[in-house]
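[agent] plan:
  1. take the single chain provided in the ticket
  2. run structure prediction with default settings
  3. attach structure tokens to the ticket
  4. add a short note for the reviewer (M.T.)
[agent] executing step 1
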Amino acid sequence: PLDCIVIASPNHKHIENLRFIYQRWKDGTMARAIPILCEKPLATNMDDVTEILQKFGPPFVSPSSERLLHK
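[agent] step 2 finished; step 3 output follows
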């Protein structure tokens, strides 16, 4: 079994990778939710940050997203 997923793709592809993982989890392809480690930046615009937080959080935590959301 997988212990975690690491996203180390080009920055602009992070959201696509996260959408793919989310869809696999929602459709039952992934039997359980597992930790995801995504290289920074997590997203390249605020719309993507909002989408990620809506799909994966809480307890999603990221120092960079916290900083962006509390400006």
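[agent] step 4 note for reviewer: Residues 15 and 48 are 7 Å apart (CA to CA).
[agent] ticket updated
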